[in-house]
Amino acid sequence: YAKQKGGGQFRFFTQQMQRLALEALHVEYELRLAMQRGELELHYQPQVDLRSGEMTGVESLLRWRHPEKGMIPPAKFIPVAEDSGLIIPISEWVLEAACRQAKQWQEQGLPPFTVGVNLSARQFERSDLLGLVESVLASTGLAPERLDLEITEGALMGDVESARYTLTALRAMGVKVSVDDFGTGYSSLAYLKAFPLSKLKIDQSFVRNLENDASNAAIAKAVISLSHSLGLTVVAEGVETLQQKEYLSACGCNIAQGYFYSRPLEAHAIGEFLADTSRLALEPPERPASVR
Ligand code: C2E
Ligand code: MG
Ligand code: MG
Ligand code: MG
After folding, report:
1. pTM of this prediction?
2. Which candidate, 210, 218, 264, 259, places its Cα nearest to that of 239?
3. pLDDT of the residue at 16
4. Which residue out of 59, 64, 118 has the highest number of ligand 1 atoms within 8 Å of its CB and is therefore the one to mutate?
5. How many CA atoms lie within 13 Å of 213's alpha carbon, on the beta-carbon side?
6. What percentage of the chain carries pLDDT values higher than 90?
7. CA–CA distance from 224 to each of 173, 196, 237, 249 (Å)?
8. Which atom of ligand 1 is the closest one to the Cα of 119?
9. Which residue among 30, 48, 60, 209 is least packed, with the fewest CB closer than 10 Å?
10. Contact 104, 140 (CB under 8 A)
């Protein structure tokens, strides 16, 4: 009986795997078409300096505008792209599109700010990454200091020798490099110290609910002080409430990003966001009508 049951479970398991594999193939097929049809687009989420209130950068976030299913978030298709190798042409497109957009903002006369680009681990490990970054900067004319590459701990701590080589070369070009989702992976502090990094981004799982979660509050505070001891700028991700913003600010966090300030926006809306925030930062608030 046990054997029979086991066999049944096995059959169920392989059927399940087959179904998942077919689904992945289908997404892969659709994703290829999506690239040809220009259905991929980047949205940009503002990053705000907690002291001055100014927008210091934006993070580019990939979206798939599917003709029937609407806007698909990256979590739904990046894993398939990673497994199929499609992540390589997609990442190249992302880097090019983000740098081209940043250059366009500059030409429109917006004040300077950085553009963040998420690099997949597979892309970070490729030997042609440096050449790609160099050629995209050259073809778009974007100043290297305006580009901020986001890399997860996992990618950095895999092959640390080649990671150090790549980071050193990127920094020599003038490009910024940030550690994304910090605290969710396994970073060696010795390597963090030795790597030429610009920023640490505290993962949003530690920011979420920190007003009610004492351990999250303690972790966020510790990461902020660790970053500063390492001479790094610290960015908090997923800031949704005024309380979270105030707490992070009191702990000395430099930059915040999250729905409290803005959801990811289409490129054209960044100019309006900037105009609003710089007006808020420069002009005293209007007095209510009753006082006038
Ligand atoms: P990430 O790089 O850590 O990006 C932050 C994610 O948090 C984004 O989700 C953003 O929309 C979301 N977020 C921002 N503020 C808040 C907030 O206040 N509350 C909550 N609940 N969420 C917030 P998104 O756009 O769905 O991206 C998810 C992940 O997909 C990214 O995490 C990144 O790892 C990956 N990804 C996005 N774009 C790209 C890309 O161009 N290339 C690669 N390789 N990965 C990308
Ligand atoms: Mg990121
Ligand atoms: Mg992140
Ligand atoms: Mg994340």
Report:
1. 0.91
2. 259
3. 84
4. 118
5. 12
6. 77
7. 27, 18, 12, 10
8. 44
9. 209
10. no
Q: Are strands 233-236 and 199-202 parallel, antiparallel or unpaired?
A: parallel
Q: What is the tens place of the pLDDT at every residue in 76-85?
A: 999 989 988 9
The residue assigned the tokens 């950068």 is 57
Q: Give the nearest ligand 1 atom to 61 CA.
A: 38
Angle between helices 2-37 and 87-107 (to 10 degrees): 40
* Amino acid, single-letter form, for residue 54: E
Q: Rounded distance, CA 63 to CA 69, Å?
A: 12
The amino acid present at 187, given as its one-letter code, is: S
Site of tokens 């169920």 = 12
Q: Which residue has the tokens 């054209």?
A: 268
The number of angstroms, rounded, from the C-alpha of 4 to the middle of its chain's C-alpha atoms is 48
Pocket of ligand 1 (CB under 6 A): 45, 61-62, 73-75, 78, 91, 94, 118, 120, 150, 180-181, 204, 237-240, 258-259, 264
ipTM for the assembly: 0.97
Which pLDDT score is estimated for 27? 82
| 180 Cβ contact list (under 8 Å, min separation 6) | 118, 150, 151, 152, 201
The secondary structure of 27-56 as a DSSP string is HHHHHHHHHHHT-EEEEEEEEEETTT--EE
